[in-house]
Amino acid sequence: MSEIELLPCPFCGAHAKTPIRNNGMYGRPRWETGCVLFCISMLAGSKKELVQRWNTRPALAAKEAELAKAWEAGRKLNDFLIDHPECVVDIPDEIYVPFVEALK
Fold it and tell me: Is pTM beyond 0.85 here?
């Protein structure tokens, strides 16, 4: 059987449990996986559906873009402070405001 690749838990980042098949309610087979630290579990009618649902993170791309923006703002602030150590109190708005906005 081929190795199944599951993304880490979307809440804590821990590994996902290996999908198991069991008899669900009324004897209908179902597949189950979840976080090894029990943050969340998921059920599906087939192994393929379970893996697809577990690995689908609709907000992941948006969150990655948001984190990249915050990282870039932090990098600019850091670079400015390294180049101008005397300006810790008087940081220009074009450097400081994007950093603060990215943290919201």
Answer: no
Can you name the residues that pair with 32 across neighbouring β-strands?
20, 43
Residue 32 shares a structural domain with residue 50: yes
Q: Are residues 42 and 10 in the same domain?
A: yes
Please, what is the average pLDDT of the chain?
83
- Residue 103's nearest CA partner among 62, 81, 59, 72 is 72
Residues 64 and 89 in one domain: yes
pLDDT tens per residue across span 40-83? 999 999 999 999 999 987 666 677 777 788 888 888 888 888 88
Compute CA 92 distance to the chain's CA centroid, rounded to the nearest angstrom.
32
Query: In this structure, what token pair is assigned to residue 59?
Result: 């907000």
Q: Give the count of beta carbons closer than 10 Å to the beta carbon of residue 19.
A: 19
Structural domain span for residue 69: 60-103
HEC profile for 8-27?
Answer: CCCCCCCCECCCEEEECHHH
